[in-house]
Specification:
Layout (H helix, E strand, L loop, with lengths): L9 H29 L1 H18 L3 E2 L6 E2 L4 H5 L4 H17 L8 H23 L6 H30 L3 H40 L2 H5 L10
Antiparallel strand pairs: 1-2
Helix pairs in contact: 1-4, 1-5, 2-4, 4-5, 5-6, 6-7
Length: 227
């Protein structure tokens, strides 16, 4: 997912930055609002989820796609709890830190942020609304697991589209490249995606139980008002 500098044309890099930066800035606004509302517990929650994303996405397994690699993502889990703009902000910050030690690039930061955040954040936003209506059990665990796997694979579908748009010159060629690049990722990425499924299944309820504010954030039960 971490596309290196020089992998994408400058114009493409600029377009991805133009898409991502307004969302990241809105993420800062949302984060500040939630910190004011929930206090330091929200800071701890955000940093914990960011640390999970940083550690999981920091794995570096080369794949036969120019300037890229495979790894778990962590954003499917974060998206189950935080807002979509905050996932973009978190991904942007994580990718800056990783680019500092050569994992990814700075010119491709917009594209990499879009890949890491978009599908996991949007998918998880809708999945959590389903999961929160369900009692704990095998079906609920299965949905959490599948959403983690699909969210992870969505990161690599987005990356495949970005690479295909950079390398293809016709619609037919672009579509062919999307399929080819995505399939090149799969021998390594599909087994890795199971990690994100397990992380979703095992850590979501743990985090909800560990941080009382998540019950208010997710509208599970209202927190008793402090007197």
């Amino acid at each position: 997912m971490h596309l290196a500098d020089g992998t994408l044309p400058p114009l493409h890099c600029a377009i991805y930055f133009a898409i991502v930066i307004p969302i990241v800035l809105y993420g800062i606004v949302k984060l500040r609002e939630n910190i004011r509302k929930y206090g330091t517990e929200y800071v701890k929650l955000f940093l914990l989820l960011m640390a999970i994303v940083f550690v999981l996405s920091g794995w570096h397994i080369p794949v036969p796609v120019a300037g890229s690699c495979s790894h778990p993502c962590g954003t499917p889990l974060a998206g189950l709890i935080l807002s979509i703009p905050e996932i973009f902000l978190m991904s942007f910050c994580v990718l800056i830190l990783q680019a500092l030690y050569g994992h990814g690039g700075f010119t491709t930061l917009g594209a990499n942020t879009l890949s890491l955040a978009l599908i996991p954040a949007v998918l998880s936003y809708f999945v959590r609304r389903i999961v929160l209506r369900m009692d704990k059990g095998p079906a609920r665990s299965a949905i959490l697991f599948i959403s983690g796997v699909v969210g992870d694979l969505g990161v690599y579908l987005t990356t495949s589209i970005e690479l295909a748009l950079a390398w293809g010159h016709t619609i037919t060629k672009i579509l062919q490249l999307i399929g080819t690049i995505f399939m090149l990722y799969m021998p390594v990425q599909f087994p890795i995606s199971l990690i994100d499924g397990i992380v979703n299944m095992k850590l979501f309820d743990y985090i909800v139980n560990r941080f009382d504010i998540t019950k208010e954030i997710l509208h599970i039960v209202p927190i008793q008002q402090k007197t």
